[in-house]
Design a protein that fits this description.
Blueprint (H helix, E strand, L loop, with lengths): L2 E7 L6 E7 L6 E5 L9 H12 L3 E6 L1 H4 L8 H15 L10 E6 L1 H13 L3 E5 L14 H4 L6 E6 L7 H4 L7 E6 L10 H14 L3
Parallel strand pairs: 3-4, 3-5, 5-6, 6-7, 7-8
Antiparallel strand pairs: 1-2, 2-4
Helix pairs in contact: 1-7, 3-4
C-alpha cells in the first residue's frame, strides 16, 4: 500500500511543498523537481513517479516556493538550489524521514537544479528528464558545466527532437557514468509518448542502486 502525503516545508525562499508517495518498506528516495513552467503534472514526471513507486521507491515531487507563492516566473538558480536543498534535507531528517539512498532529478529546470546540488545532498544517482542543454536556437549557450555535475550513475531521458538539446547534442557532454535514453518527442512529451516513456523509465528503475 502506498501512502500519499503533502508537506509544506519552510525554506530561505519561503515555503515549498513536497508531494510524497511512500510505499511500504521503500528501497530509497527519489526527489524530482518541476520545470520552469511549474508543471507538476507533466507526463514524464507522472510516469516517473508511477514507475518508481511500483518498483518500491519513495518519490517526492518538490514544488518550489515561487510556484507555491503563485508567481509565474522562477527565481535565480541560486535561490532555486537553496530552496531545493532545504526541502530535500527536511524530507531526509527527523521523525518519519524518507530513507537513503537518494536519487535526485526532475524535468528541464528541475534537472539542472538536481545536478547542481547532487554533491551537497550526497545523491547516489540521478534521473534527468528533458535536460535543457541550451536555450532553443542558441546552441552556443551551453549548460554542459551543469550536466557535468550529475551524480554517477545518472540517466537522461531525452526527446529525439528536443529544441533544448537532442540526444545527439547531449552525447559529447555526458559525464562518466551518465547515459541517455532516447524517446520520440520534443521537450514536453505528447500523450503518444506514454508507452515509450514508461519503457524508458522501467529501464532506469531496474538499474537504480539500492
Amino acid at each position: 500500500m502506498t501512502k500519499e502525503t503533502v508537506r509544506e516545508i519552510p525554506t530561505p525562499q519561503g515555503p515549498g511543498r513536497a508531494h510524497v508517495w511512500r510505499p511500504a518498506g521503500p528501497r530509497g528516495t527519489v526527489a524530482l523537481g518541476h520545470g520552469a513552467g511549474g508543471g507538476l503534472g507533466a507526463l514524464d514526471l507522472r510516469i516517473a513517479r508511477d514507475v518508481l513507486v511500483e518498483h518500491g521507491w519513495a518519490v517526492a515531487v518538490i514544488e518550489q516556493p515561487w510556484l507555491v507563492a503563485g508567481r509565474r516566473v522562477a527565481g535565480r538558480p541560486a535561490t532555486l538550489d537553496e530552496a531545493w536543498v532545504a526541502i530535500v534535507e527536511a524530507l531526509l531528517a527527523g521523525r518519519g524521514r524518507l530513507p537513503r539512498p537518494l536519487v535526485v532529478g526532475g524535468r528541464s529546470a528541475g534537472a539542472r537544479v538536481a545536478c547542481r546540488t547532487a554533491a551537497q545532498l550526497g545523491a547516489a544517482a540521478g534521473l534527468l528528464l528533458s535536460f535543457p542543454l541550451h536555450p532553443p536556437g542558441r546552441p552556443e549557450r551551453l549548460r554542459a558545466d551543469e550536466l557535468a555535475l550529475a551524480p554517477a550513475p545518472s540517466w537522461v531521458v531525452q526527446g529525439t527532437k528536443d529544441p533544448f538539446g537532442t540526444p545527439a547534442e547531449l552525447a559529447p557532454y555526458l559525464p562518466s557514468g551518465t547515459s541517455v535514453i532516447e524517446v520520440a518527442g520534443a521537450h514536453s512529451f505528447p500523450v503518444s509518448s506514454t508507452g515509450a516513456l514508461r519503457a524508458a523509465l522501467e529501464i532506469v528503475a531496474g538499474m537504480l542502486p539500492d
